[in-house]
Amino acid sequence: MTFPQRGRLRLLAFAALPFLPACSRDAGHGPARVHWDRDVCARCRMAVSDRHYAAQVRGGPKREAFKFDDIGCALFWLKEQQVPWADAPDTELWVADFRGGEWLDARKAHYLPGKTTPMAYGYGALAKPEAGSVDFATMKAAILARGK
Fold it and tell me: How far is CA 146 from CA 1, 72, 139, 143, in A?
């Protein structure tokens, strides 16, 4: 490799440096990556370990993702924090499908009651309605009315 070629290679590598952090940075939308068994629930401080009942809230000025071990913890956290962005249209709520673990938009998901969940709120999320399932508003009202 000649000196001019090495110089161009160094210049190209140096020019790419500012873009490297962007590759690993959170995009600010959608569900964030969960470090299972290491991330803790923003409300109860238990480890987020069950891939079938986890939830996330993303919002605020920094579009930060808050992780939860149960959809009930996410709902109570939003209520307790009284953050001004809780009901903003761009605030995202994500919940894991209790059968496959895929992330679903919590407001569009359907919920089956009677499930054994990490914090015993008892609702498992589904992408499509099934017999006995309820919508987000019904599930939210039932959890908040029950308290905990």
Answer: 72, 10, 11, 5
Token output for 65: 């993702």
pLDDT at 23: 47
Residues facing 123 on adjacent strands: 113
Rounded CA-CA distance 71/75 in Å is 6
Euclidean distance between the first and the last CA atom of the chain, given in angstroms as a whole number: 68
Composition of the chain by helix, strand, coil, percent to 5: 30, 20, 50
Domain boundaries, the chain: 27-146
Residue 90 CA to residue 76 CA, distance in Å, equals 19
User: Do the Cβ atoms of 109 and 87 come closer than 8 Å?
Assistant: no
Type of residue at 48: V
**Tokens 């409300």 found at:** 43
CA distances for 46 relative to 4, 25, 43, 80, angstroms: 57, 25, 8, 17
Q: What is the pLDDT of residues 34-87, one digit of tens each?
A: 999 999 999 999 999 999 999 999 999 999 999 999 999 999 999 999 989 998
